Amino acid sequence: MPRLPAEWEPHSAVMLTWPHDETAWRPQLAQIEGLYTELAAAIAAYEPVLIVCRDAAHREQIAARLDAADIPSRQRHLALAPSNDTWTRDHGPLTVLDGDRPLLLDCRFNGWGAKFPAGLDDRITQVLHQAGVFGDIPLRQQDLVLEGGAIDTDGDGTLLAMTRTLVDPKRNPHLTRAAIEARLAELLGTRRVLWIEEGQLSGDDTDGHIDTLARFCAPDTIAYVQCQDPNDTDFPGLAAMERELQGLRQASGAPYRLVPLPCPAPVLGQDGQRLAASYANFLIINGAVLVPVYRDPADQTALARIADLFPGREVRPLDCRRLIEQGGSLHCATMQLPTAVRLPGTHRA
């Protein structure tokens, strides 16, 4: 029986897809590469980072950046695959475990319901696997459109998901919710799906990925975005989501411990439109939690609450104002690989 491990379980690496001048990052490439270098260094302080480079020349440029940042060669693995964009959470592999044996699942990615070109991103995992990046770990390609940011797991058979990011005529047009639940059970070993219907952040292109809204922090604990300003346009949906979360029950029948995370003040993009700034988009790694911050007074409240949720892990902030310019934050840009996944075939720079 397969099992999708929780993010807090040990990793062998975290995967990133690096920006380049053929992505939407082109107008601000220097700034976003600086942020990605900071992110790679933060991850490498605790575990290796697998970086997807567009081509050999791109790889050499990235290697020079990592050298300048004093990131040790043993902590970085540089692989080649063409890419449309950088949202690794949604185009990277989902790793399930059957006992100690890993299996990589390559689900379809179609640009969040065909909103953006994604043909190259959809093939990244297959390209890496064919190049030997994941060694002899088997890969199974799936026709289910399933973005990693659309689900969150407690590691014990329960998933949290926003219905409209899976049950969607532009993602899985021929599948009902019941059919999708059956596929999730088959692929991920899921025994329960806790479906959420309400809540979305302004500026979010994903239709409400759960990793921007509510996250498991332990099997009995969910952290979630709470809006306390009734005049905020996001308030009605987030308040409705909060009520839904309050009605959820653990497999034992007990309610979940719910921990609210604040909303920062609206962050506006260069076009004046609101961006999807969320503290729930944190990344759990070996020994630490990396938390997106936005130079807002609420940063400190969010950091303190997340620190309480993960005793024994260092909490490290990363300024993600640049990252949310393209609609995602820290968790969206990353995908963890459990310890059973080794990277023997990857180029080391």
Brief account:
By secondary structure, the protein is of the alpha/beta class. The chain has 9 helices and 16 strands. The chain has one domain: L-arginine/glycine Amidinotransferase, Chain A (5-stranded Propeller).
Describe, in plain words, how this protein is organized in 3D.
By secondary structure, this protein is of the alpha/beta class. It has a single domain, classed as L-arginine/glycine Amidinotransferase, Chain A (5-stranded Propeller), CATH 3.75.10. It is 24% helix and 24% strand. The chain has helices at 29-44, 56-68, 88-91, 111-114, 119-122, 124-130, 177-188, 235-247, 298-309, and strands at residues 11-17, 49-53, 76-80, 94-98, 101-108, 139-145, 151-153, 158-162, 192-196, 214-218, 221-225, 257-261, 283-285, 288-293, 314-319, 334-338. It is globular. The relative contact order is 0.18. It comes from Thioalkalicoccus limnaeus. Keywords: Hydrolase. This is Agmatine deiminase family protein.
SSE blueprint and pairings:
Blueprint: E1 11-17, H1 29-44, E2 49-53, H2 56-68, E3 76-80, H3 88-91, E4 94-98, E5 101-108, H4 111-114, H5 119-122, H6 124-130, E6 139-145, E7 151-153, E8 158-162, H7 177-188, E9 192-196, E10 214-218, E11 221-225, H8 235-247, E12 257-261, E13 283-285, E14 288-293, H9 298-309, E15 314-319, E16 334-338
Parallel strand pairs: 1-2, 2-3, 5-6, 8-9, 11-12, 14-15
Antiparallel strand pairs: 1-16, 4-5, 7-8, 10-11, 13-14
